[in-house]
Amino acid sequence: MELNIIDRIYIPSILPAENTFMDFNMKRGIIKKVALTETDAEKYHIQEDTENKRTTWDPKIDRENPLVVDFTREELIYLKKACEKLADTPAPDNLWSTVEKIYAAAQPSV
Q1: Is the confidence at residue 69, as pLDDT, over 80?
Q2: pLDDT for 2-53, tens place per residue?
Q3: What is the pLDDT of residue 109?
Q4: Half-sphere exposure (CA, 13 Å, Cβ side) for 24?
Q5: With contact defined as beta carbons under 8 Å apart, do 81 and 110 qualify?
Q6: Which residue among 30, 52, 85, 93 has the highest number of C-beta atoms inside a 10 angstrom radius?
Q7: How many CB atoms are located within 10 Å of the residue 101 CB?
Q8: pLDDT of residue 87
Q9: What DSSP state is assigned to residue 55?
Q10: What contacts 66, CB < 8 A, 6 or more positions away?
Q11: Distance between CA 86 and CA 41 in Å, rounded?
Q12: CA distance 3 to 62
């Protein structure tokens, strides 16, 4: 799955706060795969604007260099279930774009 910076920001927030031990470990693995690193901060020119409570980055570099993540079948099932719990919750449009990516990736393997 190709993930842009916004996807990598949203995915941890989609995941449930309470889990079984097995799901907790899966959640931790997913977060590790999508986490933004110091290298990413330099590469994508990520800046935190604390005054306006925003994070910015270079969208051109982001579009040209998405992070390619191989989620396991179990991780995709977990992600899809997390997305289903959000279905009736109002959210920003770009969050739904992330959800669509998850569903598309989960479709062939679930």
Answers
A1: yes
A2: 999 999 999 999 999 999 999 999 999 999 999 999 999 999 999 998 898 8
A3: 46
A4: 5
A5: no
A6: 30
A7: 19
A8: 85
A9: E
A10: 2, 3, 4
A11: 29
A12: 9
Residue 94: both structure tokens together: 């770009």
Give the max Cα distance, the chain.
Answer: 43
- Both tokens of residue 19? 């889990």
Query: How does pLDDT run across 71-91, given as a tens digit for each residue?
Result: 999 999 999 999 999 888 899
- Tokens 């969050």 label which residue? 95
CA dihedral 55, 57, 59, 63 (to 10 degrees): -100
Burial 67-77 (b: 16+ CB within 10 A, else e): bebebeeebbe
For residue 21 the two structure tokens come to: 């031990």
3-class SS at 47?
A: strand
- Pseudo-torsion of CA 28, 31, 36, 38, nearest 10°? 10
The CA R_g of the chain, rounded to the nearest whole Å, is 14
